[in-house]
Amino acid sequence: MMTFEEFTAKIHKTIDLDLSKYKENQLKRRVTQFMNRYELASFSSFFDLLEKDAHVLSKFRDYITINTSEFFRDTKVYRYIEKHILAHHHSRKPTYKIWSAGCSVGAEPYTLAMLAMEKKISRINITATDYDRSVLKKAKEGIYTKSYLKNVPDQYLRKYFTEDKKQYRILPEVKKNVTFQEHNLLSDRFLTSNHLILCRNVFIYFTYEVQMELVRKFAAALQPGGYLIIGSSEFIPVPETFGFEKEYYSIYKKAL
Ligand SMILES: C[S@@+](CC[C@H](N)C(=O)[O-])C[C@H]1O[C@@H](n2cnc3c(N)ncnc32)[C@H](O)[C@@H]1O
User: Fold this and answer.
1) What percent of the chain has pLDDT over 90?
2) Which ligand 1 atom is nearest residue 132's CA?
3) Which atom of ligand 1 lies at the shortest distance from residue 186's CA?
4) In terms of CB atoms within 10 Å, which of 12, 14, 86, 108 comes out highest?
């Protein structure tokens, strides 16, 4: 009989995602829920199916990585970025480098791009990464239903989107500020010299040790005085250990 550990080891080899770094109970529950859809009772029969059927494998990958997102998710964070972070960036300064890590369908980096455009910051470079290819495809298309846009102020909706049959398409002027890239936080090299990194509602799924390792790597990936923003239910204990100071809510500033 295949154990859960054997199953995750096989998945690691097959889709290059190390599930042993995700929180075990939560992961097990999700794997079992997914298996129930196919009425499968053992990990070995489930793995056989995943090996045989690329479509199910791709669905499983989407399910396990949890892609929920929306524009202006957690509005007060974006208000803070606008007022206290982007406002201090002048166009004389070097290009402002932002990394949206675990960007899902692109709502997060496009929200940042719109805020930068409002602040008339032209020298901006937003790199948005995710492990999951299918969300990156959707992000590049930039077409959303209203459910992703419920927090978007009306003037942004009118200015930065076109509407067609209840689908909202983000304008090319916004798109051109964002570069999407496949990137696995657990195994790929981190982007360097960022001024601002957002990794929100991503590392909550990883074990504590992995979370702390990611925070250490994010600290190294930031310029002095740069910011790391995590999700509202995520937390960095003793941020000073990593050279961070908690500035507000889920926003941490790297020492100068
Ligand atoms: C819940 S979404 C968060 C989206 C966005 N940051 C937000 O807060 O709205 C989590 C994203 O993390 C991505 N993810 C999960 N494991 C990952 C990994 N190992 N490397 C990179 N991205 C990962 C998922 O594919 C998913 O798109």
Assistant:
1) 83
2) 25
3) 19
4) 108
- Does 87 lie in the same domain as 46? no
* pLDDT at 87 (0 to 100): 85
Which residue CA neighbors atom 2 of ligand 1 most closely? 67
195 lines ligand 1 (CB under 6 A): no
**Could you give the residue ranges of the DSSP H alpha helices within the chain?**
4-15, 24-37, 43-52, 54-65, 75-80, 107-118, 133-141, 154-160, 172-175, 208-220
**What is the rounded CA–CA span in Å between residue 81 and residue 87?**
8
Indicate if ligand 1 lies below 6 Å from the C-beta of 71: no
Q: Are residue 140 and residue 250 in the same domain, yes or no?
A: yes
Residue 56: domain span: 4-65
Ligand 1 atom nearest 198 alpha carbon: 6
Look at residue 114 and tell me whether its pLDDT is greater than 80: yes
Number of domains in the chain: 2
In a domain, 59, yes or no: yes
Q: What are the tens digits of pLDDT across the range 160-195?
A: 999 998 899 999 999 999 999 999 999 999 999 999
CA of 66 to the centre of ligand 1 (A): 7
The verdict on the CB of residue 162 being under 6 Å from ligand 1 is no
Closest atom of ligand 1 relative to the 199 alpha carbon: 6
Q: Would you call 40 exposed, middle or buried from its count of C-beta atoms within 10 A (0-12, 13-18, 19+)? A: middle
